Amino acid sequence: KRLSNLTTVLENPKIGEVTEVKGWVKNLRVQKELIFADVSDGSCGKKLQVVIPKHLTSDALSYGSSVRIVGLLSKSPRGQIELLADTVNVLGSCIVSEGYPFQPRKTHPPEYVRQYLHLRSRTNYISSILRVRNALTMHIYDFFRSRNYLNVHTPILTSNDCEGAGEVFKVQPDSDETVKAMMQEGKDRDSVYFGSNTFLTVSGQLHLEAVCRGMGNVYTLGPTFRAENSRSRLHLSEFYMLEAELAFCDRLEQLQEVIEDLFKYVFVKTRDTNEGDMWIIDKENEVPSWSDKKFITITYEEAINILMKKGLNVSDEGINKEQELAIVDHCGKVPVFVVRWPKELKSFYMKECQHDNTKVDALDLLTPVTGEVVGGSLREDDYQNLKVKIPSERLNWYLELRKYGNIPTGGFGLGLERLMQVMCNISNIKDTLPFPRWPHNCDM
Ligand code: 4AD
Ligand code: MG
Questions:
Q1: Residues 6 or more apart in contact with residue 99 via CB below 8 angstroms
Q2: Which of 46, 102, 232, 268 is deepest in the core (most CB within 10 A)?
Q3: 406 inside domain
Q4: 220 closest CA partner among 411, 21, 16, 424
Q5: What is the Cβ-side half-sphere exposure of residue 55, based on CA atoms within 13 angstroms?
Q6: Is residue 192 domain-resident?
Q7: Distance separating alpha carbons of residues 361 and 257, to the nearest angstrom
């Protein structure tokens, strides 16, 4: 008896062998003497047709139930692989009338499915997305491994607000207020945990830079947190960020090259390994216009000129989401690097442009569907310059990195969920991961 997951059974069918499968019934067609069940086990987007003589079944065999089926693997007259069941065990029944929210052969709108985060991995749409996410992650690791980058796990608990945007989640109870109160009560530092404000990280960059200055090219892929009060289709409170830091990097072009290669590599690989899923996620599944085109580069100033010509007003706060998408449209929906940003719009650690200290060597990559998907820069590597800009004494360790065997570095952060959106044309970021978190939504 061959016990395999469906991917193996369907990719390498052993016709004529007794085969056991375990999975969930996705569809049932009842005929006079036979029942046809489509069974899926989550390992791929395909389903196995199981032919079941009626006398082997009970009412418990229904849409949504979990089953174990043993039978002979065969080919139907039409050439379809099917399992001729001789044993059917319903492992868990699924009683739709008790509130199961999904129905067979029906495409439920994503907003509806989102109400059932705990059950939605049973839908075709979400299960395909989760398989693509899995594959994409593997391909990202492969990309960096093949280039000899070191994978580093940066901390989630931290005392820095890397981006300085004040969007940190505080970890209680160690707020400065708590510490102060404890001190006033005459308690010593041992009675508090970290003894200073502690946050969930908004970016692993500063820690990544430390290791980069000791070991060369590094990257990390991990959870990051932003207490942004944004309920848009592009923002989450918790998301995964891929961050890379390049050693001996003194030109933005070096970063751009890695980012563009990465995009194209993971796109081709994921399409290769998960094409079926990509068709399920996006019925059009058009190969995006950019897959074989060179990405475009424009300066911030040029971006502003494009927007002004379109009659769009740009505020002091920079380019908004709608404007980002307008720029991408203007560039023929090819991803656009916007480089050389006004200093005041960007974070303290960015390096000033040579010959123009009002600008920093920063880049944002804008793409169709999401607008900004990557943010990066060269890092300020001059001790004195950084000392002036550093926002807090708590970052003295970061400053000190410039004192001992310092090197120029540059790096970037890519939102994994936004990358999923771009690659699969997923309009709402909340559908790119199993349990999205956004304001007022952390219950499940
Ligand atoms: O542009 P950001 O804020 O850059 C940084 O954090 C740098 N420290 C990264 C680095 O240089 N190592 O964020 C990087 C990317 C954004 O371009 C976006 O794709 C994603 O992270 N991102 C979010 N994704 C989902 N929800 C949010 N609230 C996000 N905020 C940023
Ligand atoms: Mg950014």
A1: none
A2: 102
A3: yes
A4: 411
A5: 1
A6: no
A7: 15
Helix axes 252-273, 124-146, angle to 10 degrees: 130
Identify the CA nearest to 410 among candidates 383, 375, 374, 379.
379
**256 pLDDT above the threshold of 60:** yes
Angle, vertex CA 269, rays to CA 266 and CA 271, nearest 5: 105
Contact 417 CB / ligand 1 (< 6 Å): yes
DSSP 441: B
Give, for ligand 1, the residue of 233, 380, 417, 418 to mutate: max count of ligand atoms closer than 8 Å to Cβ. 418
Number of neighbours of residue 30 by Cβ within 10 angstroms: 13
Same structural domain, 15 and 130: no
182, HSE (Cβ side, Cα atoms, 13 Å): 17
Q: Which tokens sit at 405? A: 């065997």
Looking at the fold, whether 341 and 234 belong to one and the same domain comes out as yes
Is 418 touching ligand 1 by the criterion CB < 6 Å? yes
Domain span at residue 7 reads: 2-104
The answer on 304 and 155 residing in a single domain is yes
**Domain contains 117:** no
- The span from the CA of 250 to the CA of 239, in Å, is 29
Looking at the structure, tell me whether residues 54 and 163 fall in a common domain: no
- pLDDT tens digits, 113-169: 999 999 999 999 999 999 999 999 999 999 999 999 999 999 999 999 999 988 999
The CATH number that applies at residue 243 is 3.30.930.10
Interface pTM, i.e. ipTM: 0.99
Query: CATH number for the domain including 46?
Result: 2.40.50.140
